[in-house]
Every structure is written in structure tokens, then in C-alpha cells.
Design a protein that fits this description.
Blueprint: E1 6-8, H1 13-21, E2 26-28, H2 43-61, E3 70-79, E4 82-84, H3 90-100, E5 104-115, E6 118-130, H4 135-143, E7 164-168, H5 171-175, H6 179-188, H7 194-199
Parallel strand pairs: 1-2, 1-3
Antiparallel strand pairs: 3-4, 3-5, 5-6, 6-7
Helix pairs in contact: 3-4
Length: about 200
């Protein structure tokens, strides 16, 4: 099995950008899995399960000559114990943003690395506080198109940064790939990134 690069089980351009930031060689292989939560499933268990499932789905589809570790992640926004997924339309996105207005919510991102039959995971937990927003601001943000492929209906790395009053935790985790946890998994798996090259 090759360990000089990984497959990234995500089509997210943000996750690709973050992996490039730490010097990881990778190839994108999106995972197609069902992302519905199980009945009574806790948010942390949900993201950990999905990250591992994405990694396993891509690993299972690799040919014999393609064997290499698979990295996957899943992010959830949690408010009042409820998962806020990706909004389907402007009304749903605006509704989510209204609920987040002036409040603190949680962002959970799980990252999983599958190498052979073994899967190892890490969880990043962050808290984000939004300032109070107006209906006009929320609709203007929806008009940018940013909310519709993002959990919770916003991207902290985009226009919604102006709504963020405070962040406690991992910025990269809120974006979608916690680099501290990712680097720990890569190091344990013997997979190179920029720090590995310096240490060699």
C-alpha cells in the first residue's frame, strides 16, 4: 500500500485547499453515502460515523493497484441539540441564519483515516457565536449562493465571516477539515506532510 499520498473522500474545494495548505499529496475520490442521522443518534456519533463510512466506501471501491490510505471528514452544525444540515432553498437558509442570529452554536467535524482494514478517527469541537443579524442581511447573504452546500447554511471562510463575533476552537475544523486532528492521523499513519519533510 502506498503511503506517499492519500485519497480524499470529499468533493469539497475547501477540504482540498486545507490539505494543500499542509503539503499533503492527494487525489479526490468523492464518497456517495446516505447522510441521514439514525434515530436518537447524538451529533458527535453522527459525524464520526459518517466520516468513517465515507473513508470505508472509497477504500472499498479502490482497485488492487490503487491501494492507499483514504481520508474523510464530516461536519455538523448543532443548535439546541439539533443538527442543522445543508439548506435546500433560500427560505430554509434564511431560517437557519435567523436561528443562529445572536447566539452561540456548536460545530463538530470528524476526520477519519482508513489504511487497509483499520480506520482511525478524531473529533474537533468548536463554538461559534454570531452577532445579531437583520432579515435584510440574511437574505443578502443567501443571494451570494454560499449557504446551499454548507452545514448550518453558512461558510465561515466566506461572506458570513462578518457575522462571526467569536470562535472558540478550530477555524479549520469549522471550515470542514480540522488540521490539528488531521495532521495527528497522518503522522500516526506514516503519511507525509510539510512537517514530515522537515523532520526527515
Amino acid at each position: 500500500m502506498r503511503k506517499d499520498f492519500v485519497y480524499l473522500a470529499s468533493a469539497s474545494p475547501r477540504r482540498s485547499e486545507l490539505l494543500r495548505q499542509i503539503g499533503v499529496r492527494f487525489e479526490v475520490r468523492p464518497a456517495a453515502i446516505t447522510e441521514e442521522p439514525l434515530v436518537g443518534e447524538a451529533p458527535d456519533a453522527y459525524v464520526l460515523r459518517l466520516a468513517a463510512a465515507k473513508a470505508s466506501a472509497v477504500a472499498a471501491a479502490l482497485r488492487a493497484d490503487e491501494q492507499a490510505p483514504v481520508l474523510a471528514a464530516d461536519t455538523a452544525v448543532v443548535l439546541d441539540g439539533q443538527l442543522l444540515g445543508k439548506p435546500a432553498d433560500t427560505a430554509e437558509a434564511a431560517g437557519m441564519l435567523a436561528r443562529l442570529s445572536g447566539r452561540t452554536h456548536g460545530v463538530l467535524t470528524a476526520v477519519a483515516l482508513q489504511s487497509g482494514a483499520a480506520v482511525e478517527s478524531r473529533l474537533s469541537v468548536s463554538e461559534v457565536r454570531f452577532r445579531a443579524t437583520t432579515a435584510a442581511e440574511r437574505l443578502a447573504y443567501c443571494a451570494t449562493g454560499e449557504p446551499f452546500d454548507k452545514a448550518g447554511g453558512y461558510g465561515i471562510q466566506g461572506h458570513a465571516a462578518v457575522f462571526v463575533e467569536e470562535l472558540r476552537g478550530s477555524y479549520s475544523g469549522v471550515v470542514g477539515l480540522p488540521l490539528f486532528e488531521t495532521a495527528a492521523l497522518l503522522a500516526r499513519g506514516g503519511i507525509g506532510f510539510w512537517l514530515s519533510a522537515r523532520a526527515a
